[in-house]
Amino acid sequence: MAEMGLADLHHRVVETEATVRGYERGLVELAERGVDVLVMDADLGAAGGTGEFRKRFPDRFMEFGLSEQDMLGTAAGLAQAGHVVFVTAHGMLAAANAWDVIRSTICTASLKVVVCGIDAGFSSGGDGCARQSLEDVAVMRALPGMTVIVPVDAVEARKATVAAARIPGPVYVRFATSRTPVVTTDMTPFTVGQGAVYRQGEDATVMACGVMVYEALRAARQLEDGGLSVRVVNCPTIKPLDRAIVNRAAVETGALVTAEEGSTIGGLGGAVAEALAQSPRPSPLRIMGIEDRFGESGDHEQLLSHFGLSAREIVSSVKDVVARKRAIAAGTDAGGTT
Amino acid sequence: MSPTSSELREIAKIVRRDVLTMVLEAGSGHVGGSLSCADILVALYWQVLRIRPERPTWEDRDRFVLSKAHAAPALYAALARRGYFEMRDLLTFRKLKSKLQGTPDPHRTAGVDVSVGSQGEGLSIANGIAVSARRAGKGFRVYCLLGDGELQEGQVWEAALTAAHLKLDSVCAIVDRNGLMGAGATDEIAALGPLADKWRAFNWRVSEVDGHDLDQLTAAFTEASSVKGQPAVIIANTVKGKGVPFMEGKVEWHDRKLTVDVYEEAMKALT
């Protein structure tokens, strides 16, 4: 894994950091590089990751208070004048409350606004279901021309922030506020629109994004002990999806699992299913995520495990798709257990 | 070289005729709300806005946001009459591959600055444009035409707070106060009054005029541009369907297909 530029995950204690901290460093880096970036925030304070930026570049920062729709609309007005506007909003408020503004005034005109969804997934844990953004990826992905990115860790979050400023048209990036395992380093490649193979394998592929990549790597190691060789792909760009990497996974491993901290409807799993249905080798797929339900209060890590998003569950999903692949090959597949 | 009051009235009549022709040709479209704001658009495009139709993207031009996007026919008629594109384009309104979409699209139509469509979103965009102008040290102004029905959208009042908080004195909102919306009278659906007091309470400079009196409109725009340190709103009292007596004040002409008979009768009223 060293040549992949991945962090050493063999340590007993893995380093963790909230991905929103990568957002914070990325914003400062952009301004330092002289990019004409403006940052807006809707009352997220320290949680939103704009603290360092607003301290260093106060004339490039606007606090909007609790008015997400107006903030996104104002961002549209600024973007049409050529500014690169980063809008910091609670993930679900950006995706739901302000979705129509994003659709009707930003996306229809393909304006360069980067919508940064904070408190992604279960990361605001204790706040409960109202504040947990589990459907944000699905609704943002449905918007024509919208790029959707879910960084794997704080290191990639910084790279994604910097890269987002160069993407033409609107972008949605989601950031977690609770600590996430750091699996990459500054050397790990990151390109918008591309997935990256973090571990080679032939029996099945796990495609994951965000915190689930770490769980997938753990699962792959456990499965290796059981004799299964599992490919792990980090897929931070949900849209446009890296269809080539899906096709290769289908042709070369013939069985796929997707894992994400979000709804199983319309997110990474949905995108991979759409690609897979048109791939040269349609293959059994198991979509892991939150299955058509709302979240509930709890600690982030507990919630992931409570909703079946852990290495242990990935292990059983991989075994399931591999069994189905073998049953299909033997002509005895009965439709799987999903 | 500014047109006289009687010339402006004549232009407004022509714009209204264009609206009817477009809606007849398209087989659909919003006549009532287009006719109610025709005089406001004529005041803007012939008297107020600093624009160069031969250079639609001239950097220092004043900007216009049609927040009440369903009045697109009136905007397109004004733009065509000002020379942004050819008159015959008006006949393609609402048709496949047309430059003239049902709601304004900056990618397709010369002279359209921003994409609007959903109610209540335009004033925020106008604020953003005004902030960008301030940052760039540009002196242009931003005008935003709102329907009175769309004032029911909460985002309008978020934007009203923002404009006043940021002291955006280059922003001028105009409310086309015709009192009717798709489902009926605005005041029966969700009463807006006292409307001027609401804007004043949000710290806006308010003036109220007869929205069909071009002299009053022009004077109100001049006054609005002299206000410093706060945004200005002009409440223009108008009549839905103005200019066509049998459409005036009738909610059913909010959005109705025109027959040739109705069209001819309406055109007669506008000669």
CA-based shape of chain B: globular
- Regions with little confidence, pLDDT below 50 for 5+ residues of chain A: none
Described by its quaternary structure, the protein is: heterodimer
Q: What is the residue-averaged pLDDT of chain B?
A: 96
Beta-strand proportion of chain A = 15-25%
SSE sequence of chain A, one letter per element: EHEHEHEHHEHEHEEEEHEEHEHEHH
If strands are numbered along the chain, what order do they take across the biggest sheet of chain A?
A: 3-2-4-5-7-6-12
Name the biggest interface. A-B, 26 and 30 residues
Number of strands of chain A: 14
Largest sheet of chain A: 7 strands, mixed
Overall geometry of chain A comes to: globular
How many strand elements of chain B?
7
Your description of this structure?
The complex is a heterodimer of chains A (338) and B (271). By secondary structure, chain A is α/β, with parallel strands linked by helices. Chain A contains twelve helices and 14 strands. Chain A has helices at 19-32, 51-56, 68-79, 91-97, 99-107, 136-141, 154-164, 212-225, 243-253, 268-277, 300-306, 311-330; strands at 16-18, 37-41, 61-63, 84-90, 113-118, 147-149, 171-175, 179-181, 196-199, 204-208, 230-234, 237-239, 256-263, 285-290. Chain A has a seven-stranded mixed sheet with strand order 3-2-4-5-7-6-12. In chain A, strand 10, helix 8 (212-225) and strand 11 form a beta-alpha-beta unit. The longest helix of chain A has 20 residues, at 311-330. The model of chain A has no long low-confidence stretch (mean pLDDT 94). Chain B has 271 residues and is of the alpha/beta class. Chain B has ten helices and seven strands. In chain B, strand 2 (142-147), helix 6 (154-165) and strand 3 form a beta-alpha-beta unit. Classes of the chains: A alpha/beta (338), B alpha/beta (271). At the A-B interface, helix 3 and helix 5 of A face helix 5 and helix 6 of B.
